[in-house]
Design goal:
Oligomer: single chain
Helix content: 25-40%
Number of helices: 9
CATH topology: UDP-N-acetylmuramoyl-L-alanine:D-glutamate ligase
CATH superfamily: Ribokinase
Number of domains: 1
Largest sheet: 9 strands, mixed
Strand content: 15-25%
CATH class: Alpha Beta
CATH architecture: 3-Layer(aba) Sandwich
Shape: globular
Distance between the termini: 37 Å
Radius of gyration: 18 Å
Structural class: alpha/beta
Length: about 300
């Protein structure tokens, strides 16, 4: 592995299947869908790795896939983006996971992940591979691998001197994450915030106060919350603020959250403040929602600047 890696990503890889619906279905509704197809789209680990690398970030992916079409596509997509794949494990005993993204006419989406914990990277494998990445500045992880594995990666990254970024998604109601003082930055959306506070997900609340409560309850110093079309907010060591969404015609929100996180982390590697990073990441997310797909549309820095001229 190259010694100048800035970001290590520890999360899931899988193939992305898409379909369209008129609107996101409610409980008990049978919905008609159309345009079922595969996109150049993968799990959160793959997406974040590729997005940062396409911006020019020096990124390594630590994860596992099968010796199958899904595993080979992950190798190609991340490799083409410039991701270091030294620690990308292709295991003949594993079947690469699958996700289904349902896209409504208004651009809203619902994602169903068909993840199997048996296919994920294991804690012993992390203990073997992560020390080889010890010179990285940031470790980014999330819950498309088993929660205990992700949190172990976070703790290991902290021990190795990295700044740890946790995106606890997907997150089931009632999940107890315990003390997260080893996490430097917590990236969540509104639903995840309410789950972490034990609130009903359909209950309105003061989201800035919710971010403060999460910081205090979980002892993590920086909480960044994405709010879709309402922008984002932050409660951090640098202060508190809200960041407006950058105006764009929304076609497809799939991959926007992963893109926002990726752009934010890339900005930090370039020396930007968290506030400036969120502003730039908002522009990046606007580019993503105005296109369909994820990896195939994640832009380079030059493409993004040209788009916003």
């Amino acid at each position: 592995m190259a010694s100048n890696i800035d970001v290590v990503v520890v999360n899931g890889h899988g193939l992305g299947e898409y379909c369209n619906v008129k609107k996101i279905p409610v409980v008990g509704e049978t919905a008609k869908c159309w345009n079922r197809h595969f996109e150049e789209d993968a799990g959160k680990g793959t997406n974040v790795s590729a997005a940062i690398a396409k911006l020019g970030g020096k990124t390594a992916f630590v994860g596992k896939a099968g010796v199958d079409e899904g595993g080979e596509l992950g190798k190609k997509w991340m490799g083409d983006a410039g991701v270091d794949l030294t620690h990308y494990i292709m295991d003949p005993n594993v079947v690469t996971n699958l996700g289904l993204c349902i896209i409504a006419e208004d651009g809203n989406n619902m994602i169903l992940n068909f993840d199997d914990d048996a296919n994920a990277i294991t804690i012993p494998e992390l203990d073997e591979h992560l020390p080889q990445c010890k010179d990285a500045k940031y470790l980014v992880t999330g819950f498309e691998i088993p929660i205990e594995t992700s949190l172990h990666a976070a703790k290991k990254g902290k021990e190795l001197g990295m700044k740890v970024v946790l995106n606890p998604s997907p997150l089931d109601e009632g999940t107890d994450l315990g003390d997260l003082s080893y996490v430097d930055m917590l990236f969540i959306n509104e639903t995840e915030a309410k789950i972490m506070l034990g609130l009903p997900t359909d209950q309105d609340c003061d989201l800035m106060q919710a971010a403060r409560d999460i910081r205090d309850r979980y002892h993590t110093p920086n909480v960044i919350m994405t709010l879709g079309s309402d922008g984002s907010l932050a409660v951090t060591e640098e202060g508190e603020w809200e960041t407006a969404v950058y105006p764009a015609k929304c076609i497809d929100q799939c991959g926007a959250g992963d893109g926002f996180l990726s752009a934010f982390i890339w900005c930090l590697t370039q020396g930007k403040s968290m506030k400036d990073a969120m502003t730039w990441a908002s522009r990046y997310a606007a580019y993503i929602v105005s296109h369909t797909g994820t990896i195939c549309v994640y832009p380079t820095h030059e493409q993004l600047e040209e788009f916003f001229k």
